[in-house]
């Protein structure tokens, strides 16, 4: 099973790949799988297009700025905690964890939106 590394997690590919099947059966199966993939594409394009009908470059810029700000807050918090030289308290770790989670969620949302445009689920106006 192969693995795809993304920004913050690993996604495993688990697509069935027949090894010893009849060539005609393999072609039939590939055709069926293409129909399934196309159905997923159409569903994504229609549903995401309805939910995100007005995507433009300014939206990407705002999301990028928000993500960069969250990243800077996360790192700034870690540097603040390191200034005393003392071990971080549970409250400090909770703040750091919250800041990291905010950054990671925003980064994943940005990448998700980018993939939606790349795959043709939404268009940039």
Radius of gyration, CA atoms, in whole angstroms: 21 Å
Portion of residues within helices: 55-70%
Shape: elongated
Whole-Å distance between the termini?
Answer: 39 Å
| Cross-sheet strand order for the largest sheet | 1-2
List keywords for this structure.
125 residues, mainly alpha, two-stranded antiparallel sheet, 3 helices, elongated
Topology:
Layout: E1 3-5, E2 10-12, H1 23-51, H2 57-82, H3 90-118
Antiparallel strand pairs: 1-2
Helix pairs in contact: 2-3
Please summarize what this structure is.
The protein has about 120 residues and is mainly α. About 65% of the residues lie in helices and about 5% in strands.
Describe the overall structure.
The protein is mainly alpha-helical and 125 residues long. It has helices at residues 23-51, 57-82, 90-118, and strands at 3-5, 10-12. Strands 1-2 form a two-stranded antiparallel sheet. Strand 1 (3-5) and strand 2 (10-12) form a beta hairpin. The mean pLDDT is 89.
